[in-house]
Design brief:
alpha/beta, 5-stranded parallel sheet, 4-stranded antiparallel sheet, elongated
C-alpha cells in the first residue's frame, strides 16, 4: 500500500527536520569589492576555494580553508540569504554583512531531525507499558556511579563522558530509525547526546525533560541524589 512505499522512502519518520548546510567563506573588508570580483573570477576559473581563503580571507576560519562547519540557516547572519537559497553543492554565492563582503561556497547539505521532548509523565506511561517498550531504545548518558545510585528499567548506560568510545559505532549499537529516548540527571547531558544522535542520522530522538531528578518526583521509588 501507499504507507509501505512512504516508509521505504524514509518519509514515515516522526518529528520535523531542519536543513543543515556545510559552508566555507572568504571574508574581505567592505572597501575591497574589486578584490572580491577578482577572487570570484579565479574560483570560476577553477582556483582552489580553500587556498584563496587561506591567502585572502580576514576571518579566523581562513586557517581551516574558510570552513564554517555545519550550520542551520537561522544561525547565519543577515545578508546570508543568497547562500541559504543556493541550490547546489559547489555553488558560490555572494553576501554582504556588517563585517564585510563574503564569497560563500555551499560544500554540502543534509536534512537533520530535530530533537523532540518527552515529559517525565510520558516516560512513566511508556515504562508502564511493556509492549510499547519493546520497540524503543532507552539510553542513559549518566556516569556509572550515578547509574548504580538510581536507574530506570530498560535503560542502557552509555555515559556521555565516554562518547569518544561509543560514538563512532553508535549506528551499529542502536537503530537510527527506531524511537530513541535519552535520559540524564537534569536533562542537559542528555540534550547534548540527543543532538549528537541526530547528527549521526537518528530520526526519532526524544530528550527526557528534567532528567531522572524530575522523574523521581513522579515515581517516589526512584532515589533522588
Amino acid at each position: 500500500g501507499h504507507t509501505v512505499a512512504a516508509a521505504a522512502a524514509g518519509q514515515q519518520q516522526p518529528g520535523s527536520f531542519v536543513r543543515k548546510l556545510r559552508l566555507a567563506h572568504i571574508q574581505l573588508p567592505l572597501d575591497k569589492q574589486q578584490q572580491l570580483d577578482e577572487l570570484e573570477q579565479q574560483i570560476k576559473g577553477g582556483a582552489s576555494f580553500s587556498e584563496l581563503a587561506r591567502q585572502h580571507s580576514v576571518c579566523p576560519s581562513k586557517r581551516q580553508g574558510g570552513e564554517l562547519g555545519w550550520v542551520s540557516p537561522n544561525q547565519l547572519p543577515p545578508g546570508f540569504e543568497p547562500v541559504v537559497a543556493a541550490a547546489a553543492a559547489g555553488q558560490v554565492s555572494r553576501a554582504t554583512t556588517a563585517r564585510g563582503h563574503h564569497l560563500v561556497m555551499l560544500l554540502e547539505e543534509k536534512q537533520e531531525a530535530e530533537v523532540q521532548h518527552m515529559s517525565v509523565n510520558e516516560l512513566q506511561e511508556l515504562l508502564a507499558n511493556p509492549l510499547l517498550c519493546e520497540e524503543v531504545q532507552f539510553v542513559d548518558v549518566r556516569e556509572h556511579h550515578e547509574f548504580s545510585t538510581a536507574r530506570l528499567p530498560h535503560f542502557k548506560l552509555l555515559p556521555l563522558s565516554e562518547s569518544s568510545e561509543w560514538g563512532p559505532t553508535i549506528q551499529e549499537q542502536l537503530d537510527p530509525a527506531a524511537e530513541t529516548v535519552v535520559l540524564c540527571h537534569h536533562g542537559v547531558r542528555s540534550m547534548n547526546a540527543a543532538m549528537f544522535l541526530v547528527s549521526q542520522g537518528f530520526t526519532d530522538v526524544k530528550n527526557v525533560t528534567g532528567g531522572i531528578a524530575a522523574y523521581s518526583k513522579v515515581d517516589r521509588s526512584v532515589p533522588e541524589y
